[in-house]
Amino acid sequence: MPKASPETSIAGTTSKTTRKAAGSNNKPAKVSAAKLPPLDNHSKKIFVLDTSVILYDHSAVKNFQEHDVAIPITVLEELDNFKKGNDIKNFEAREFIRFIDKLSSEHKLQDWIPLNGRNKGSFKVLMNNTISGVDAINIFGDKNDHHILNSALKLQQDKPGNKVVLVTKDINLRLKARSLNIISEDYETGKIQDVADLYTGCDTLEDVAAGAVNELYEHGFCDAEKVLPAPPTDNHFFVLKSFKNSVLAFYNIAEKRLERVDKQTAYGIKPRNAEQAFALHALTNPHIKLISVQGVAGTGKTLLALASALEQRREYKQIYLARPVVPLSNKDIGYLPGDIKSKLNPYMEPLWDNLKYIQNQYPETSKEYQRLREMVELEKLMITPLAYIRGRSLSNIFFIVDEAQNLTPHEVKTIISRAGENTKIIFTGDIYQIDTPYLDSQSNGLSYLIDRARNHPLYAHITLQKGERSELANLANELL
């Protein structure tokens, strides 16, 4: 039997709410392990969803196959605090509230309501969390989290023959649940099973026939069947090595052949290794419209994306650079002084740093230097937040999304769905450097995109392995 998310869908995700304690004078009670009744293996499971799951995926209640799903009334109370705003979590809250409203127009939410769809279970709102025996509020204090735990405990008492499972993105809540003998799981819809096997976009082939390597050097292409035993992933890159020579190659899915990859220069930026050459080749390929570049800090992800955008500036109306605003130390953007531009500048400084680095490749009196300044002044090159992307149509845009590992799968889908004619979208990031609570290397939007979009003719991916920022930066990545 599958875990909390047997079905997989492109689903919206976001972080969990921070709950406020109501304060309690109750002294901690002694914890005694609650004895669970024997389970009927032939009965349905009942999954109790936490607020974090709804904010992660408003359609989560539909992703448990034939099993029943319930939410405590406390979850609805918390969702009410998130219905206003432009963030993805606000959208998720509103969509789920609409779903509940539609259900309640025909049924009582206190009753088990059949969910529409083949082999679907039923849904209800848990109104009562008054229990006998072990009480989470007496043990842990009067908080919304603990009301949710009591709802699960009450359901265990009312349904002794069913397996009750609390599903939450909050690790600490899962641990508290298990301490009360409540089975608890993470919500796993959309999660990548093994990031160690995540698609890298390139391979090295040893002992390639010298004739094929020579043909690539002389003619720029060769028949893929001469080198590869089977057709590779669309837009895949190779380092081909023969006895004496090696060559960089790209599998052109349209022509079904291997083509030589040269180390080209983009607006003064030249690749320093094979992976960077592959990335720049994909970024400047007019037939590839969606690209992801993954790598640790200092590998040149954002710099290469920006340099390639500037190199192709004549092909697009505007260049957009964006990154998710992830406040540190729980300080929201509203705490910063000034207008929206002033508030955003601290978060966007890394993008400005890359722009200045490219600009400094040229003398201040040069045309290239002045052109960059004019592009910023005329808003041909714009650095913008992602908060207001929903509802827009982006046509004739070169769109770079930095730090994409801090996006949810639903946010990535939303951005891509905004693409109009002649728009190219690039996602860059490091799936192991995540600043957003309740996302990890398996559930973030960048990993999801790499896993799902591979082998599509419009998509290319490359993982940058070697840091090129400095030896000092490499020391941090390798040793610390």
Automatic annotation (TrEMBL):
- Is Protein biosynthesis a UniProt keyword of this protein? no
> What's in the keyword line of the UniProt record?
ATP-binding, Nucleotide-binding
Question: From what superkingdom does this record's organism come?
Answer: Bacteria
Bias-annotated ranges (Polar residues): 1-16
Q: Pfam families this protein is in?
A: PhoH, PIN_4
Q: Which family does it belong to?
A: In the N-terminal section; belongs to the PINc/VapC protein family. Belongs to the PhoH family.
Q: What is this protein called?
A: PhoH family protein
Upper classification of the organism: Bacteria, Pseudomonadati, Bacteroidota, Cytophagia, Cytophagales
